Amino acid sequence: MGVVGLELVLYKLKIVPINSQKIIHRRTIITAQQTPTMVAHSSTPIISSFSFLAIIASLLTVAVLPATASAVPLSTSSRWIVDESGQRVKLACVNWVSHLEPVVAEGLSKQPVDAISKRIASLGFNCVRLTWPTFLATNDTLASVTVRQSFQSLGLSESIAGLQSNNPSIIDLTLIQAYQAVVSSLGKNNVMVILDNQVSKPGWCCSSSDGNGFFGDQYFNPDIWIKGLTRMATLFKGVANVVGMSLRNELRGPKQNVDDWYKYMQRGAEAVHSANPDVLVILSGLSYDKDLSFLADRPVSLTFSGKTVYEVHWYGFSDGQAWKSGNPNQVCGSVVNNMKRQSGFLLEKGFPLFVSEFGVDQRGTNVNDNRYLNCFMATAAELDVDFALWTLDGSYYLKDGVLGMNEYYGVLNWDWSDVRNSSLSQRLSVLQSPFQGPGLSQSRLHKIIFHPATGLCLLKVGWLGPLKLGSCSQSGAWSYSSKKILTLKGTYFCIQVDELEKPAQVGIICTTRNSQWDTISDSGLHLSSKTLNGTDVCLDVDSSNTIVTSSCKCLGRDSSCDPESQWFKLVDSTITSTSSSPIF
Q1: What are the pLDDT digits (tens) for 411-460?
Q2: Checking DSSP bridges between strand 386-389 and strand 353-358, what pairing results, if any?
Q3: What is the rounded distance in angstroms from the CA atom of residue 557 to the CA atom of residue 329?
Q4: Residue 70 three-state SS
Q5: Cα distance between residue 73 and residue 270, in whole Å
Q6: 474 φ/ψ sector (left φ>0, alpha ψ -120 to 50, else beta)
Q7: Residues 349-362: tens digit of each pLDDT
Q8: What is the C-alpha to C-alpha distance for residues 303 and 301, in angstroms, rounded to an integer?
Q9: Contact (Cβ atoms closer than 8 angstroms) between residue 396 and residue 96
């Protein structure tokens, strides 16, 4: 083990002080019988003869590299995630894949790691959900394979050249050191990290028969999993920007059951907290992380508090092709009700809910995804949830046997040089800022009128109007009375119907029926009123983002219509607009 390794272990155990001048980097030599190919692609975890202390010492040699992130330990306060002062911190994350066969964060052959980290921050994300496979932490030999060796074993010569050019300081690091280097780069750019245990055996996730789905599956030994969680929690203890650990991604498959979920998830949570009490402990549900309904009647029993977060996944394809084949109002209403029954109820029970995966085909041509996203945006704003968008990755080194596969759900383009869809990124950015929470009460509770199809909000208005959409940071503060009147707070102005197919108007006589707005349709996202002559209308948006009133769309069962322009959500907020005066 050596003097340096032993001293590092003793230092971490608070037994001896550390002499930083004595720290050196070490790599375990792979013998001829343990080639990178054998290690990286073995069907079972290779547990070497190295002792537990030896591997921890080897890992800790890298862990002492300084972190410059400004994040502080986070905790929970009822349904909110908060910092040490008790102020809400909204996790606005993006997923970054590091669990595929190379076991290296994707994109490092395309761009320098620091450039990617800076890009993440510039896009408004304050957090990365960084994936890792269990075997990286439990297979001692795999952890000591270098990046170059891993890529050579997979025949990724082009990626090696790209890594040599873009990240020469990483290519000859071990896989675990490379993972740490990515975390460190994110920290230097003030980006928090959630360590996400995506799979056990490196490879794409997920199917119900891949051997990674549930406790007792081929590659999912609960004891090895606990060991992996413990080692990763220990390795990143004291690394300021590592603020949470997701225990396991998308539990699934024929073996899944509630009793084993409680047995092992509670063990995993306790192991992580014992090894690293600073991090949030994030628990996923069953059925590909869609179902946490069992928690309604049987809470988790843990010895610690103030650190537990639950996560859920929600995609358009989570409901097959329902969005494309069904009426959008009906599908949205049904899916949202089901989501709230299976996971959303946890917010009311006083637990944070982290939507740790959602996303769409960013080419904008997938009807199922496009319809889903409008509904998702409305719900995510309403619930003001923490989230992680899938995915940052513009392409993969190797996925499903394909070299350089393009990822159309990726925020970045194929060569990671730019944003794939800037208008979609701008639209999603509204979710990155909190609408309310502890320490953020700048004004009394009010409503903002959110338009999910554009990611914009109804602005402050004056007597001369017109009503327009704009940045939600400049949103008007509205009240919605028991008489269903939408009034700009602090004024006498209310929203009224003029005539069908005309711009909505602002009035001060707010007792007539053209001032009353009902939320209608199965989605609850239409705002409907009547003209003075009794014609039913719905709020709508024209091509210039002016609010108009039109005939209500898609209230029947027609699956071919699209009501997105008429969907609005009244969202609770306590955030003061940056616009100080109405727009006249």
Answers
A1: 999 999 999 999 999 999 999 999 999 999 778 999 999 999 999 999 98
A2: parallel
A3: 9
A4: coil
A5: 17
A6: alpha
A7: 999 999 999 999 99
A8: 7
A9: no
